[in-house]
Each structure stands twice: as C-alpha cells, then as structure tokens.
DNA sequence: GGGATTCTTTTCCGACGTCAATAAAAGAAG
DNA sequence: CTTCTTTTATTGACGTCGGAAAAGAATCCC
C-alpha cells in the first residue's frame, strides 16, 4: 500500500519553534514582533525560529491585506502556508467512517463517508485504509504531501500509546490502532478520543484559540465534554475525563444506561429525548428527527422535553464552570439542530446554577458540520506533527 | 517593624534547580540519580544543580539510614535541611487569625491564635503583624531566617497580584494584602485562597506529592475543593474554581445561601447540618458540636442528616472524578470529626455516581489539625520562595 | 531630506544541559 | 588479595538556545 516513503518531519523540534508556529497557526498572519509578545520570546528568537520554518516552506511572508499602522515600519506578516502539507482525519462511529483531507491549517478539502458493515477491528481497519486511499487520490502531488493520519474514536483512548483501551461503543478492548493503521497506510498515525480531538481542533483552530482554560460541550447522541486546563487537554488518570453527560442533575430523574439516575445524558441525550417525547405525546417515533419535528410544530409535551434537556445541559455547564472556572464554554454537536428549542433554558439554568463570578464565563455555540469530528482527528495529527510530545 | 534586611533569595533561579529541589523536598532523601530519573534531567545536570544548593545550605548530603542496595556504589542521598530557613503561614478566618512557624520542609514548629475583634483590613493587618512578631520571637537566630510569609484568605484572591479581589466572608474588595503586609512585616508576602493554599501543601508535602492530577475536598463550615491538573493548582479564569460546595446534587433540595437549591453545601455544610438536625429532632442547638453529639447518641433523625450529607459529598466527589479523572481525592477539613457517621455514604454515593473507571480514583481521608490551613499558607510562601512564578 | 517610530535582523555572549569519559565505592569472584 | 562487575557521581568539552544591545530597514510626518 503506497510506500509513502519519506516520513517528513517538522524542522526545529525545539519548544520555541513549536510555540512560534502554533501562534502563527492559531492567530492568522502575525508580525514577528507580535509573535514575540504573544509567546514571551525575544524578537531575535522569533526571527531565528521563523527562518527555518520559512525555508522549509511551512511559513510564508506577506499577507493578503496588511492593515497599515499609522507610524513606523510596516510589519512583515508571517502566516502558515496551508497548502504546504496535508493531513487526513478519520472519525469512526458505530455505522460509518468519516474521513477528511485537510491542509496544514486544518481546512477541510475533501470529506468522504464509508458505511461500516460491522465493528470488528479488521473491518474498521480496512475501511480506514480504503478511505485513506480515496483521500490520498485527491492529493495535488509531492508538493503537498500527506504528513499524518489522525483517528478519533469514542471511549478510553491512550493517545501516547496509540491504543484504544476500551470503547464500549465499538466493543473494543486494547486495540493498538495506531500501530495497525500505520502498518496498513504507511502514515504516521495519531489516535485520540473523539471529544478530545474536537477540543484540540477548537484549541488550535477554533473558538478556543488563545485561551488556556475552556471547555467544549458536545450535544448529540451522547453529551460529552472536552476540557482544556492550563493550556492542555485534560485526559484523566484512568481514561475518564469530561464526562459531563454523567453528571447527576436530578437524583430522582430517569434511569441512565450507566446505571445511575438523572444524568445529563439521561435527560438530554438523543435517545432520552426520543423516549421522553414519545412518553409525553404518545406518538410512535421511528427517527430522532421526528421528535424535533413535533417540538417545532409546537406540541407542548415535546417542547417541554427539550426545555428540560436545555435545563440539564445548562446545569451541567454550570457544574463545569463552578469547578474549573473556564474562560469560555463552546457548545457544539449535532444536537444544536434543536438549539432554538433550548437555548433559553441552557442560559437560564447556567446563570442560576453558576456560583458567583463563574457566571461571567462566556458560553457560546458553534455550529458543527458533520465532518467536524473527522476534522478534529486531523487536528490531532497536525498537533502530533508539530509537537511530538502531548504537552503544550 | 524589624528591618528584616536581606531578602535572601533562592540560588539558581533556573527551572532545573527548582525541579530538583522540589523533588527532594517532596520525596525525602533521594540519590542524585534517582532525582535525575524523576525530573527527566541528565545525571550531570542534577549534580550541577545540587551543588549550589548544598553550598547555600538548603540541601545536605547523607540520610539517617541508607538502605544499601546489594550491588554497586551506594547512593549518596540528598535531603532538604529543614532548619536552614523558616516560614510563617497565616490563615485569616472570620473571628481569629491562626499563625504557624514552619521550617523549610513545612513542618510546624509553633502555632498561635489571635482573636479578631472585627474584619476591617486594618484590624486584620495589625493582627497579622502582631502574630508575625510573636512567631519571629520563636526563631533560633540568623542561622534560620524567616524567608517568607504566606497568607490564606477565603474568597477570590489573585495570587499573582497579591490582592484579595473579593472575600464575602471578610467583606473585603480589592485589598492589596500582599503589599500591605509586606510593608508592615518587612517579609516577602504571598497571598492565596485558603483552599488553594491547602492544596499546595498537599501537593508538595502531603498525599498529593508526586501526583499531577488530584483534588482536595474540604468539609467544614463550607465545602471546598482544590484541584491540581497537569501538576498545577487550578485558579479559574474569573476567580472561581473548585466550588464543589455549589455543585447541585438535588434540584429539589434545601435552599442554599448562594440562592440555588440542593448545593452540596446546603446539605453537608456545617450550618446546613445544624439546621437539618434541628428540624429532624426538634432539639434546639446552640453549638455545631451538639448536632454531632446527637448523632453519636444514635438519634435516628440526626444520623439521617449525616447520612444525607455523606451522600451529597460523595456525589460531589464523583462529579469531580467524572469531569477531571484525578488520580486521587483527599478529603480533609474539620467536618472529618464526623467522618465515621458518613464515610460509608460518601463511598457508596461516589461509587454509584462515578462513571466507568472514574471509580478507580483513590478517595482517601486525611486528618486535618486545626493549624493545617495556616500550614497551607506557609506552603505557598515556600513555593513562592523556590519558584518565583506560579507555574509548576 | 531629516526626525520619529516601529519592525526586523545581526552579532556577540552567557547560560544551561547533554555527551562521553572518568572517578569512586562498594560487593563478588577467583 | 587482586580483579571484575555494578552502580553512582563528577568532570570538562561541546553545542544549542535564547537574550541584550545595536544596527538596519521601511514608512510617515514635518
């Protein structure tokens, strides 16, 4: 399967180079002096760090439009040449694999689906290989090589080892996915938890850029949460972290599949909403979209279900804010399709349950295209390429 | 007030020196090679970092008892000379100031109380000055100078600035406490939130030594929580963090002073327990200890109050574990006096509400002598002395 | 064409940490 | 008793990285 030869690596593996590059990556075209201010290096150090990056083609000088300052020598802006390198991100779900081809700036170029007949690791692996093959065919040529493959899987994933320790959804245990995928594709592979991958994408390329403490809350089939504290994504000592979906918001609430009562997910998860709408309206629902349709039509029982879901999510976010005091919480996920139905309740519940100035936390939403999860996987690959270690 | 002259500083302000010293401080006598393994430096670097520290007297060679390995050259253990320097820690509560004199290893030598007639910053400041004066009098002489003063205050404290931004308990706003105390005492002053200070003490000298991710939960008048993530104490973007006391565990629960319902603190805080025991038994209680006494006597209503309190605390801890996945949770605080009355409930509620392997988190208790809060303050002073910046 | 101002680069230098070699301190083996 | 093995500690050469200061560059304003 395609020799893929070289294994091109990032020049200058010094922390300073990574910092400088990351700053330029996250904050668009920047003057060297501005970079120096941001990362706390001397201007001279920035000049020296930038040079090899320009020589290698990762950075280029000159921006499209330079907003001239009134005084002094105009800045010589530096930006990342997105087209210099490509990455592939893959998200494995229960019934399909989604893959994207992105550039170095994590902009999606091509997105592809592949249905998944079963969840056997071999099946998934060959599916990934096929998807990667398809995406590689979309490449421009050797000028923009594909430098990494990121794979996002739900569950307990050890990114350092590149193994899936336990994924209830896929029914996997201790699958050395990175190693296997590297063998079949010949690419450097990064494997991470799906929510953390999405969080990395937000941290580097999204609404978390420049923040050291924020949270990403995903609303969909499950309710997940990625946390960035002290500038680093929280992984958890035992493979569990960010389980906002299983924060209890009502000990008398509905039973959750985790065995507990009144988890956020048992109230606001997709399955829970469908079940509750059915109970409230008596309508038989065969598809999640139908619950949403009922609420949109104004059926009171359905609307109330969404309202309660919003309240649960708002409380969950308040819990995160009370414990960690993030600067921002970014709500995302497929569930945002129903955002208008519970936006108010999320906000109200958050403000009520947030303690003191935790309520100042900036809670915002971010629409999530279907390929966003795969893009998160690509972001982890880009991160691995630039900074070999997991740390900042 | 006592010139205090010199302002002795830590030699070698390089990160490596701090890391080496901290490792020796937290993990008793260590061989240089062992230090090198722990902090990831080369043996040569450790040798070079240790030398100036020995010359300055902070480290000494040779331990009391060296467990000889069977083979090879025996290690030349290095440990901190606790007596080389002293620190003062002060905790300001509503009605008194507690001060301790500790050595460099944060071992308490002397502890003193001082009643506080009112909460005016001037009164508190002169109280601190008096307490510091008393503790300075216990000093051995110039061989063991007092090198720092740590002050712990509840509320929103900016450690970097050394200001109390807002303390509801003291009714303070924007008091530049570090600056003021430095002027009156002539010592380098560190000001921090009380729970965070306690957490620093655990991180460096207690059950959190060597861990990068853990939590300290304090049970007492309030329910607080200090979090260490990625090896650093979480401060929160808006001055709020670790507010486990205001995590909602029962939306139908009793009203909390924060305006919300069913907070952990509204169920398990001291005032809440007293109120609930009164409601359950009808006995008029004039002192918190009486509630405990009733429960100890086996009065069913009182016991149930404690049981519910334990359940609330256990749920709160589970929430922390679900979100952050700490390696360990350390329960401490005056409320532990009643630990036998709710230990089981804490454990049960934790195990039930913890999601998946989050239940593997090591939850343990740690008795907390009354001067422990002040010791935490001293720990922050020691930390500031060794590492000028707040980071690791 | 001078300042004035701001951004960038150059040059020098010191600090720090690794590498590789060496020394040191034991017990084990013969 | 000598030599080998094993482990720990130290030394000094070397390279790298980042900072300080000064010079250079590019623009606007006067």
From TrEMBL, chains A, B:
It holds the Pfam family HTH_24. It comes from the Bacteria. Gene3D superfamilies: 3.30.420.40, Winged helix-like DNA-binding domain superfamily/Winged helix DNA-binding domain (1.10.10.10). InterPro entries: ATPase_NBD (IPR043129), ROK (IPR000600), ROK_cs (IPR049874), WH-like_DNA-bd_sf (IPR036388), WH_DNA-bd_sf (IPR036390). SUPFAM superfamilies: Actin-like ATPase domain, Winged helix' DNA-binding domain. Belongs to the ROK (NagC/XylR) family. This is ROK family transcriptional regulator. It comes from Streptomyces griseorubiginosus. The lineage of its organism: Bacteria, Bacillati, Actinomycetota, Actinomycetes, Kitasatosporales.
């Amino acid at each position: 399967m395609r020799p893929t030869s070289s294994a091109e690596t990032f020049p200058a593996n010094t922390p300073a180079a990574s910092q400088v590059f990351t700053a330029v990556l996250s904050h668009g075209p920047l003057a060297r002096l501005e970079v120096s201010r941001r990362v706390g290096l001397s201007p001279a150090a920035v000049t020296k760090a930038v040079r090899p990056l320009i020589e290698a083609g990762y950075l280029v000088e000159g921006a499209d439009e330079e907003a001239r300052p009134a005084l002094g020598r105009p800045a010589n802006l530096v930006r990342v040449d997105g087209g210099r390198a490509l990455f592939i991100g893959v998200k494995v779900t229960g019934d399909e694999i989604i893959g994207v081809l992105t550039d170095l700036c994590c902009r999606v170029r091509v997105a592809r689906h592949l249905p998944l007949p079963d969840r056997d690791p071999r099946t998934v692996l060959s599916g990934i290989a096929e998807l990667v093959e398809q995406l590689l065919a979309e490449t421009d040529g050797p000028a923009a090589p594909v430098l990494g493959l990121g794979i996002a899987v739900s569950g307990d994933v050890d990114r350092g080892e590149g193994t899936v320790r336990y994924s209830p959804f896929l029914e996997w245990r201790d699958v050395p996915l990175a190693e296997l995928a590297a063998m079949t594709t010949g690419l450097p592979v990064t494997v991470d938890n799906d929510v953390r991958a999405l969080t990395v994408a937000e941290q580097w390329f999204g609404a978390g850029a420049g923040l050291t403490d924020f949270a990403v809350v995903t609303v969909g089939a499950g309710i997940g949460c990625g946390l960035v504290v002290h500038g680093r994504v929280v992984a958890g000592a035992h493979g569990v972290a960010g389980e906002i979906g299983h924060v209890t918001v009502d000990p008398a609430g509905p039973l959750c599949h985790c065995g507990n009562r009144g988890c956020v997910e048992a109230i606001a998860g997709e399955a829970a909403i469908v079940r509750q709408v059915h109970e409230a309206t008596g309508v038989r629902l065969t598809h999640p979209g139908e619950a949403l349709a009922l609420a949109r039509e104004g059926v009171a029982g359905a609307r109330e279900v969404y309202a309660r879901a919003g309240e649960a999510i708002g409380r969950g976010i308040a819990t995160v804010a009370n414990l960690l005091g993030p600067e921002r919480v970014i709500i995302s996920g497929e569930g945002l399709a129903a955002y208008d139905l519970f936006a108010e309740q999320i906000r109200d519940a958050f403000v009520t349950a947030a303690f003191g100035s935790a309520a100042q936390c900036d809670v915002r939403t971010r629409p999530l295209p279907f390929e966003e999860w795969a893009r998160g996987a690509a972001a982890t690959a880009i991160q691995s390429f630039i900074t070999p270690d997991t740390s900042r």
